[in-house]
Design a protein that fits this description.
The protein is globular. The longest helix has 18 residues. Strands 1, 2, 3, 4 and 5 form a 5-stranded antiparallel β-sheet that branches. It has 468 residues and is of the alpha+beta class. The chain folds into 3 domains: 63 residues, no CATH class; 205 residues, HIV Type 1 Reverse Transcriptase, subunit A, domain 1 (HIV Type 1 Reverse Transcriptase, Chain A, domain 1, Roll), CATH 3.10.10; 153 residues, Ribonuclease H-like superfamily/Ribonuclease H (Nucleotidyltransferase, domain 5). The chain is built from 10 helices and 22 strands.
Length: 468
């Protein structure tokens, strides 16, 4: 948005490192469908671009105060049955997998000014996940213990699926790091080039933890030190948050693709897209790209395939003089549901019982992991962090047991034996914007409302519904 677009209401935006910027609030009409326009406040200023939320960018329109309309995304997308690239050998189902690029350890621009910043207070919910993540990265050789005059604070970031990303606030180090020629292309230019292809089919790849696959020279590592629980660590691989990491990563992937004689593609750091007029053409191009990256040492993971996914829901209704609850679990891969029911409890209780039921299924089927989906913020927040806090306080609050303590105790004990990832699903979304994730959530919600007497199908037969 042009810098002349300024509002009258002042607002101050402060960052985690203490810096602030004086901006203004500007009213603008926004529509996600192109039909219903609503006025929303947007932060802007002389030196700040107008940044729209991802909900607008995905599939919507934006109308600025001058009356101009801006459209984003692709008008239509057709999906057909094609061979998934995730069937290639060498791909990993482990979301935490880390590769090791077959190149010399990277010499990076190093500062001669020592930067030492103390750790500031972090989100309480991040403490246990970050501790586990540090232990995991140390075991993978991505980080190691060190003693360094440098130190930067950890800045944990929660991802959309509830997991945490270990990032370090290298703001101070970035300020004194020597410049480096930027090799990363301009995103707008890439967009224009992609639009010029006018292809019918597109495919993208997901390079797993690309930065962590790039080895750092030993003499450069002390600059990236950070401290966690009294122990100082540093990165043996390229860290996230450092100003030159995207440039170095982009250049190494570009070199690998050129060496492997990759077919026509566009690259932005570790994101690669290919295109063509047929599904087969795009599939072959995508396979070639993946094979080159795997041979170079990167790890590739099939991003969206979740064979161990379960959606959960709970409901409650009055039958005669009794309050009946029902907990339901939906499997998108089996296309079946399983449920349990009882009397005298609320829908919130049923939501928690559904989690317990999902764990029953995962244990019964001997799954190595579980992707758990819920539209209950209470359940999601409990599994993301409250559970650990309750456990540490002996399942009490202000001297009394927490609500449904036996259920939560059982769930906590079982989570120690199984890798479980929890994702919150927005239950209130228009059908026009509903994804496969939302459709599966609707399935489990519908199943939670069906009377038990109406259903009697077997889980193994992949029927529509099975009630335990």
């Amino acid at each position: 948005m042009p810098s002349s677009y300024e509002g009258v209401e002042p607002i101050s935006i402060s960052g985690v490192t203490g810096g602030s910027q004086q901006l203004t609030l500007l009213g603008a009409e926004v529509s996600l469908t192109g039909n219903e326009w609503q006025k929303h406040p947007i932060v802007t200023g002389p030196e700040a671009p107008c940044i729209l939320g991802i909900d607008c960018l995905r599939k919507g329109y934006f109308k600025d105060p001058k009356g101009y309309r801006w459209a984003f995304g692709i008008a239509a997308l057709e999906v057909e049955e094609i061979e998934p690239l995730s069937t290639l050998p060498g791909l990993s189902e482990d979301p935490s997998v880390v590769g090791l690029l077959r190149v010399e350890e990277q010499q990076v621009p190093a500062t001669t000014t020592t930067v030492h910043r103390q750790q500031y207070r972090t989100n309480r919910d991040s403490l246990v996940p970050i501790h586990k993540l540090i232990h995991q990265l140390e075991g993978q050789g991505v980080i190691s213990r060190t003693r360094s005059p440098f130190n930067s604070p950890i800045w944990p970031v929660r991802k959309s699926n509830g997991e945490w990303r270990l990032t370090v606030d290298y703001g101070g180090l970035n300020e004194v790091t020597p410049p480096m020629s930027a090799a990363v292309p301009d995103m707008l230019e890439l967009q224009y080039e992609l639009e010029s292809k006018a292809a019918k089919w597109y495919a993208t790849n997901d390079t797993a933890n690309a930065f962590f696959s790039i080895p750092l020279a030993a003499e450069c590592r002390p600059h990236f030190a950070f401290t966690w629980r009294g122990i100082q660590y540093t990165w043996n691989r390229l860290p996230q948050g450092w100003k030159h990491s995207p440039t170095i990563c982009h250049g190494l992937i570009q070199t690998a693709l050129e060496k492997g004689e990759a077919l026509e593609h566009l690259q932005y750091i570790d994101a690669i897209i290919v295109w063509g007029n047929t599904a087969e053409e795009v599939s072959e191009k995508g396979k070639k790209i993946l094979q080159i990256l795997l041979q170079a040492g990167f790890a590739i993971k099939p991003k969206d395939e979740k064979p161990y996914a379960l959606f959960t829901a709970g409901s409650c209704r009055i039958v005669g003089k009794h309050q009946r609850w029902k907990a339901t679990v939906w499997s998108p891969t089996q296309q079946v549901a399983e449920a349990a029911e009882g009397e005298g409890e609320s829908s919130q209780f049923a939501e928690v019982k559904a989690i317990q039921l999902a764990l029953d299924i995962a244990e019964r089927e001997k799954w190595p992991m579980l992707d758990l989906y819920t539209d209950s913020w209470m359940v999601a927040n409990a599994l993301w962090g409250w559970l650990q806090q309750w456990k540490q306080s002996n399942w009490q609050r202000r001297g009394q047991l927490i609500w449904a303590a036996p259920l939560w105790q059982d769930i906590a004990a079982r989570l120690e034996e199984l890798v479980v990832k929890v994702r919150h699903v927005d239950a209130h979304i228009p059908k026009s914007r509903a994804t496969e994730e939302h459709q599966n959530n609707q399935q489990v919600d519908q199943a939670a409302k069906i009377e038990v007497a109406q259903v009697d199908l077997d889980w193994q037969r992949k029927g529509e519904l099975f009630i335990a």
